[in-house]
Amino acid sequence: MTGRLSRPGSQRRRFIAAPVLGAFASCLARLASAGAQVEEPLADAVHSALSAAVADAAPPKPVFASIDERLAHLRWLGALSDRLRKQKTELVARVEFLETLWYESTRAGLEAALVLGLVQVESGFRKYAISVAGARGYTQVMPFWARLIGNGDASRLFHMQTNLRFGCVILRHYLDLERGDLFLALGRYNGSRGRPEYPNAVFAARRNWEIASR
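^ that's the sequence the OP posted. Answer follows.
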């Protein structure tokens, strides 16, 4: 499939606030189990290319060359929406996520199933996931990338399209750096280049999101 692209008084308030704040902190502390991309110097041409690649924040509007491609995309969307129901229970949010992920992965020349596998391993589809290393969001992007090739606002890495855009652009960069070797590119993405655990986990997760072309 192809496409273009609340006891009255203060004492009671304290009594209530403690468990509420505790639950909130606990929620934030559900850290992702991801590793961390390593900050490396970028050649000027690479820096310019990556900065340009993340700059366009236009909403995802896929364009298809034929009605058959459009119908194939709709079949993909329906099938994957059913599979993602447990992770994202609201239909609108689920479809928006899938449409955006498809757009960003296609834009970067990556398989949508691969990126879905990466998101599953990295964050378990949790938008506000934070790793022990500080990586953020669905694709667990390290904050230094916002400074290196973005506008410097790391909080934007919790925005769905921004996070997926960065994740796909970074993985594409690593894939090019490793001359098409996806095993090494995934290892570099996770900060564990050369070790099999992370790439193998992503490859296994990818199979959950693959569908037959016909």
